[in-house]
Amino acid sequence: MRLHPAVNRTRREVREGLRAALDAGHVSSGGLVLAAVSGGADSLALAAALSRVAGRLGLRAGAVVVDHRLQSGSEAVASAVADRCRELGLDPVSVHAVRVGRSGGPEAAARTARLSALRAAAAEHGADAVLLGHTLDDQAETVLLGLGRGSGARSLSGMAPATTWRGTVLLRPLLHVRRSETKAACEALGLQVWDDPMNADDEFTRVRVRRDALPALERALGPGVVEALARSADLLRDDADALDGWARTAATKLSPDRLAELPPAVRRRVLRSAAVAAGAPPGQLSSRHVDALDGLVVRWHGQGPVSLPGGLVGERRYDRLSFR
After folding, report:
1. In the chain, what is the greatest distance between 2 CA atoms, to the nearest angstrom?
2. How far apart are CA 293 and CA 306, in angstroms?
3. β-strand 168-171 against 129-131: which pairing, if any?
4. Edge-first strand listing for the sheet containing 306-308
5. pLDDT surpassing 70 at residue 1
6. Quick one: 195 exposed, middle or buried, by C-beta within 10 A (0-12, 13-18, 19+)?
7. Residues of the domain holding 84
8. Do 21 and 125 share a structural domain?
9. CA pair distance 270, 69, nearest whole angstrom
10. Residue 152: how many other CB atoms lie within 10 Å
11. pLDDT at 253 over 70
12. Torsion of CA 118, 168, 14, 24, to 10 degrees
């Protein structure tokens, strides 16, 4: 029986993503990989594809379901999603309930709690990596959010196919798949999808971008905006990787005179990395802080110390830049 094109597409992308992870050494032959499954179309399509392609690549496949406990009945939903994963043949399958804090706002707090649960599940089962169901649409939304915040190239480069969060490898094999394709794949496979009501709550910035901003851009600029934003992210990621590599090489040049010789894009990366290494929380260190540090290098006229997040201070004394 001929498979639906969307089913073929998701399987192909997951297969290629796992092959790339094997080649890069993120995943070892015979190792276990876990799909993070919420019950939505994206993660269910991911889980279904993983269950079919992992064995052919010599990998074992399981799943982890995170219960954020933000809605009444969330425990029953998580249990039903876990059962669906078992029906797909994934093993092991575990449910991790988390407590969502408030730091950084509701979206950031939920993300941190979710990632911590995925990290715990990977450690519990000895998994090499966790697969996430982020799609091309998610990538476009991420880029647009970065543009709205006035972020730099690293933020505008969106989500990478493979990243590491506190030692846990995260793979995103569906970054070139549209959300409409994951829905079509689930429909073709007869998978019952759970629609999280929070995905329609315009209290959240990402929901407003998804519902209002992207459609408005497509009306104004024509179709293909989502693909164009994701393509820009890929190009900017290459640029950001190159600049970050240059900055790492130049990181020993903390004397203001030597720093001043570097291009601004590289110099600011060196300053940001130095501040983070000294103890500034990365999520709170803004471009305004880095610009003030840069002023100590290229606009030096005897000004006082620069206050940084985390109680840190950056200061220049004659030919030396230091943090305390």
Report:
1. 76
2. 7
3. parallel
4. 306-308, 312-317, 320-323
5. no
6. exposed
7. 5-135+157-203
8. yes
9. 40
10. 18
11. no
12. -170
Q: Is 287 exposed, middle or buried (0-12, 13-18, 19+ CB in 10 A)?
A: middle
Residue 82's Cβ-count burial label (10 Å; 0-12, 13-18, 19+) is buried
Q: Are residues 91 and 164 in the same domain?
A: yes
Q: Dihedral angle at the C-alpha atoms of 266, 268, 269, 274, nearest 10 degrees?
A: 130
- Tokens representing 74 are 């969330």
Pairing of strands 93-97, 60-67: parallel
Q: Which two tokens stand for residue 50?
A: 């993983």
d(CA 299, CA 277): 23
- Please give the structure tokens belonging to residue 123: 């450690």
Lowest mean pLDDT among 192-201, 216-225, 237-246, 273-282: 192-201
Q: The domain that contains 176 carries what CATH number?
A: 3.40.50.620
**Which residues touch 236 (CB under 8 Å, ≥6 apart)?**
153, 156, 157, 158
Measured in whole angstroms, the distance separating CA 82 from the mean position of its chain's CA atoms is: 23
User: Is there a cis peptide before residue 281, judged by omega within 30 degrees of 0?
Assistant: no
Residue 230 lies in a domain: no
pLDDT band at residue 69 under the 50/70/90 scheme: confident
Beta strands in 146-285 (DSSP E): 162-165, 168-171
